[in-house]
Amino acid sequence: MERFAVEVEDFSYSYGNGEVIRSLGFRVREGEYVTIVGPNGAGKTTMLKNIMRILTGGTGVIKVKGRDVISYGQKELAREISYVPQSNGKYYPFSVREFVLLSKYPYLNPFSRVTPNDERELEEVLETVHMKRLKDRHMNALSSGERQKVMISASLMQKSNILLLDEPTTFLDPRHQDEINRILKRLNRELNITVVSVTHNLNLAAMLSDKILALKDGRAVYFGGVADFLDNSVLGRIYDKEFKLISHPDKAVKIILPEII
After folding, report:
1. What is the pLDDT of residue 198?
2. For the segment 173-199, what is each residue's pLDDT rounded down to a tens digit?
3. Residue 219's beta-bridge partner residues?
4. Where residue 106 falls among pLDDT bands split at 50, 70, 90?
5. Reported pTM
6. Half-sphere exposure at residue 158, Cβ-oriented, CA atoms within 13 angstroms
7. In whole angstroms, how far apart are CA 228 and each of 205, 211, 219, 261?
8. Exposed (0-12), middle (13-18) or buried (19+): which is 111, by Cβ within 10 Å?
């Protein structure tokens, strides 16, 4: 029997100026890596925030592990699913250690204290993302790439096995992009964490994903495997342009070449 981490059924969502998501449906199997792509304003971030219940009030159904997301208590949902938002330069008045420990909140009450076991878990998750040596550094003294790794550490501290990410490598240099992507793929493969990530980088989506969900004007234009996605008959319907595609030299996928103006 197939087990689904996330199911979206005939879902629509509106802001004050009109519908952003229109009758959308898709399902993500447990352990899959699914990337959501599409033009600006297609509804990608809005969909993530509705799955996470940061936004509410849409029509249709969103299920997390077979249960309607609205049936979860907040702490209960946080044990199942975690969210890494876009990097926004926000001020965080915490050290790395303090910030990551805050993510234990789904398991704590207001009077809980940090235990030796909590400290061991902290060491383990920071080691996973290669940030153990910086655990006492202030969050605002980190580079953008280091901060993203801390955000991923915080999601691991929640012990949820569904991870939502909104453009996790935006504004990062190539080295940090590669490092973050390796971490995410390792978590997916080795820990069987279900990943649903938004990106504008189509080559990255092709390299990392099991499936790609492409949105345009709030609707699903494509949901399926990478091989069929990277074709101009599909890409043209999403982006209203033609791409130059070549075979990757090391992997059995196509990649998109940048255009020279």
Report:
1. 96
2. 888 889 999 999 999 999 999 999 999
3. 216
4. confident
5. 0.92
6. 26
7. 13, 10, 18, 27
8. exposed
Nearest to 232 by CA among 243, 223, 222: 243
Give domain limits for the chain. 4-87+161-257
The residue type of 169 is T
Nearest residue to 94 via CA among 85, 103, 86: 103
Alpha-helical runs (H) found in 69-219: 74-80, 96-102, 116-128, 144-157, 174-190, 202-208
Per-residue pLDDT at 87: 73
Beta bridge partners of 220: 215
From the list 41, 85, 13, 11, the residue with the least C-alpha distance to 215 is 41
Helices first, then strands: H and E counts in the chain: 9, 12
What's 258's DSSP letter? P
Residue 77 tokens, joined: 């949902």
Computed over every residue of the chain, the mean pLDDT equals 92
In this prediction, residues 203-212 reach a mean pLDDT of 94
Q: Which fold has domain 4-87+161-257?
A: Rossmann fold (3.40.50)
d(CA 170, CA 145): 9
Q: Are 9 and 60 in contact, with CB atoms under 8 Å apart?
A: yes
